[in-house]
Amino acid sequence: MQAVYSHLFSPWKLQNFPIANRICVPPLVIYTWGDKSGRVTDKHLAHYQALSHGGAGLVIQEATSVCPEGRITLDQLGIWEDGQIDGLRRIASILRGAGMPAIVQLSHAGLLGATPAYRVSPSGYSFTENGETRTGRALSADEIQVIAQRFIDGAKRALQAGYDGVELHASHGYLLSEFMNPAINRRTDAYRAEDLLLLRQILTGIRRETPPGFLLGVRMGVFEPDLATSLRNAQWLESQGVDFLDVYYGCDWQAERAAPAGYPFNPSIYGAKQIKQVVSVPVFAAYQIASGPQAEAILADTGIDMAVIGRGSLVNYTWGNDVRAGLDPGHCLDCALCMWKVAPDKCPGRLLLQKQRQAH
């Protein structure tokens, strides 16, 4: 018996933009496809062409660095100079051509940067993960203002390239996430975590430099460092006029994840549910959503606006179309070494799905 999807495939509007359903492909950085220029390649274009016609209502372009020293990897896409605009315009055209708003995520890696000499943080911070210690140098107030302008300039280039909006990357432990987390941001000046001045300057500057209707969203941490702080952050972001909140984990090494005993979904989903109850803007939720019925159940339980399908969309570019058709869309096998990052055609999840399809 085919599942009934009263939520997952219901249309809605993000501001004035029609969205066909509640499936969102999140900004997923594609490693090894570019070079130090940060420019779009043919592989990027083919990737977004496939994703945009795979049945999702919204595809958000991967984290795109606002400055070369803020890159997550040295081959990350960039939006820090005008020479990158032409390639970005081609991605924006693909997304808009598929009937969805073109949104690009703007990022600065902070203490998770690709180059140790450029790793920075709000107040100086070190942590060790998987045997590697990362240390971020404390930024001066003048340097923070320069970074704020980099984000604003990135949004201006996005507008020039034909995007309908931007999403600020304030999760995953990157720089904006660090500024929102008082366990990491221990500054005592105007840029302390409680005042969120860096975010205010970026949001205000982008609104000043873009026309009405230009979408402005934030991917925020749900336990930054705890749910109570993130609820306040979400309400503050809404008060600043953001158009949507894309909820995920923040600085994992300085976070208190929590969900009621027996809650059927990931704590990130629970946190998004709580955020949805205190804001009126659209809320997206992510983490380990592996099937159509699970996505439907999450939408019904939480009242959120979009289910974010990351790994599943990489394993199967047509995840949304297949779920709608009643097919098994496949799933990520959570390999110790992600083969998709190295050679997508050799991804075990993809190969298993192909084998299952051939058997039927």
Structure at a glance:
With 360 residues, the chain is of the alpha/beta class. The chain contains 12 helices and 13 strands. The two termini are 17 Å apart.
H/E element order: EEEHEHEEEEHEHHEHEHEHEHHHH
The poorly predicted ranges are none
User: How many strands, which pairing sense, and closed or not: the largest β-sheet?
Assistant: 8 strands, parallel, barrel
The coarse silhouette is globular
What's the mean pLDDT score? 96
Give the amount of beta strand, in percent. 15-25%
CA radius of gyration: 19 Å
Describe the strand arrangement of the main beta sheet, using strand numbers. Answer: 3-4-5-9-10-11-12-13
Percent range of helical residues: 25-40%
Give the terminus-to-terminus CA distance. 17 Å
What would you say this structure looks like, in words?
- With 360 residues, this protein is α/β, with parallel strands linked by helices.
- The protein is built from twelve helices and 13 strands.
- The chain has helices at 42-52, 85-97, 141-160, 175-180, 197-209, 227-239, 267-276, 292-302, 311-315, 319-324, 339-342, 348-359, and strands at 12-14, 17-19, 23-25, 58-65, 103-107, 120-121, 125-129, 132-138, 165-170, 215-221, 244-248, 283-286, 306-308.
- The strands form three sheets. Strands 3-4-5-9-10-11-12-13 form an eight-stranded parallel beta barrel, surrounded by seven helices. A three-stranded mixed sheet has the order 6-8-7. A two-stranded antiparallel ribbon has the order 1-2.
- Strand 10, helix 6 (227-239) and strand 11 form a beta-alpha-beta unit.
- Helix 1 runs parallel beside helix 2 (85-97) and helix 3 (141-160) runs parallel beside helix 5.
- The longest helix has 20 residues, at 141-160.
- It is globular.
- The mean pLDDT is 96.
